[in-house]
Amino acid sequence: MRFPLRLPLLVLCLTACNSTPTPGAVDHARLQRDTEPGQWLANGRNWRAERFSPLTRISDQNVDSLGVAWEYEFRSHRGRVEHGQEATPVMVDGVIYVSGPWGTVAAIDAVSGVEKWRYDPKVDGAYGRRACCGVVNRGVAVFKGNVYVATLDGFLVALDAATGAERWRSDTFTDRTRSYTITGSPIVAGDNVIIGNSGGEYGVRGYISAWNWETGKFSWRFYTVPGDPAKGAEHPEVAEAAKTWDPKSDWASGLGGTVWGEMAYDPALDLLYVGTGNSSPYPIWHRSPAGGDNLYLVSILAIKPDSGRLAWHYQQVPSEIWDYTATSNFVLADLPIGGATRKVIMQAPKNGIFYVLDRETGAFISGTPFVHVNWTTGIDSVTGRPTLNPAADYRNGPALVFPTQAGAHNWQPMAWNPQTRLMYLTALEEGMVMWGEKTYTWKPGRINMGASAYLGVIPPALPGVPAAAMTKLRAEAAKHPDPAPQAWLVAWDPVQRKARWRRPLGKTEIDGGVLTTAGNLVFTGSHDGRLLAWSADSGTALGEWNIGTGILAAPSSYEMKGEQYIAVNAGYGGALQVAYPPGTAAITRENYGRVLAFKLGGAAPKLPPLRTNDTTPLPPALPELAGADAARGEGLFMSHCVFCHAGRGNAQRSAYPDLNRMTAETHARFDDIVLRGALKDFGMAPHADVLTAENSRDIHAFLVREQTRLRGEELAPPKR
Ligand code: CA
After folding, report:
1. Residue span of the structural domain in which 644 resides
2. Domains in the chain: how many in total?
3. What is the 277 CA–ligand 1 centroid distance (Å)?
4. What is the pTM of this model?
């Protein structure tokens, strides 16, 4: 009778006695089993990407005693510049893997917060200029002992999960003269690691590419929009898509459709789900003058991961003109709909519609507005095709459009709670005034949108727009809610197709990703530096913790040695770093990337030091600027500089240096910095390819004027 005793022990030991498991031991089978509530094995925790933790030690009964267990400083800043943190901490067998700006990765002990290793891809700072929406990174994938990260400069890298050493790296860019970057997260599907790219605002052609997870050998590439037909279609889907474009489309503009959001993979159906981005340029009359749906812009694609062949597609916005994207995160679930259980994929993208599709066939199930929407007048309940609203078309003058290009919901991940059967997302109610450029030609190395927008406000006048058109716009606005921003935490029922509850998060465009747990909890971070907790069933506010650093990323949760943790990656920046409300608590303090882990009975969060409120220095006398044109400089500043350098003074801080308060030394080096890349390592790329010496002098003259004005305001504040 020795065997029956020994055999169970052996089986137990195979699964539990190994106290130091192989680092990063995640595979499809482990994800599919989903039997380890204490782990957070992927961005969305499991293969369904729910962002739900089954842990209950922290609950609605005790969450108020949450405090900080440990803090890890990311050290990803370069010089004075700190970029946003957008990645979710992944936790596998006691080690947190988390990425940051440029594609840096930290492996951190999940209990002590001590760094195990840190990887810095040493990206050429010149790539910073190509990142429309901040030098950010949205996460890693862990698989069979490797940690995969994509670097801002376009390399897909496999790191040894034990040491952080590079195992292989592959160049994913097809054309390095184009303004491609990568800010998205890779995913492993089948035997391949798949990655897309960013750069739609600059005029690039979107695609995803696949490499063998183990060898790093190239497998396939799928272009999301056609290229110049004279050069031939790279794969059958491109030829199919080309039928929905004008044969005289502006191929030079790349056309967009970039894949920079979170992908998902169903291992049972063996389908990879991919969301594509906006058009480039935005106005279809410049891009594909004869019109057409313009596949596969703003679409969900289901792709066979081993062959790269398309299984189905669903386009959310045919003929896209509003910078809408299908790049928000996906959640996979089995839902009771119409008396049957449907395998669904859910997404709440920028256009304000909550989509439920059959993830096996792509069949449309429902599409329901979760904020005020006017780009469509309705969606066909069978085909899922939206009717576009002519009133939101800005071809013949400015149009008021709901929601905005910031998105009713953007990349900040939503979370699905299978117990409440509710989706929790941070939503933005806001309108924008959008208008197009009369003429458009793609220009290398700069933003190529062909249109502009004012978010949250109807300006009294617009450049080149007649007063009659503004009167018409204001008349249209009377039919809609106030376009001013209002962020909400929404609990959405995808079966009943309505919000169960929603709670205000502030009059801001900026909000964070979401975590929900079996402890009847929902967590999200706030732009002004607080971690917030709510009850999942009723939306009761249960606690807030001021950490003094703006939070964009979604928290995650894990359990080690009987303790449950809530981990969050804090650091403000990203696309809307210029839109932080003046005086916001988070931006009055130093901004640097920090991973914080909370547990019951932890300590009070430490706040970063307050920034000093210096008086703006008087700019030095600069005789070399005699004859420079500040008005012309203002125009150049608005088209080349403002995306990063919109900060002004003590109240309106941005994550990047404030050019309204340059030191004498910066003034002296202005041309060296702007034209010749003196601060390239910090992310300030040389601009000699797009700006002349005269342009630089005009911009400089404008900034001197603004600095003088700002100093005057500080010394004699305007009377209210
Ligand atoms: Ca965009």
Report:
1. 623-715
2. 2
3. 7
4. 0.93
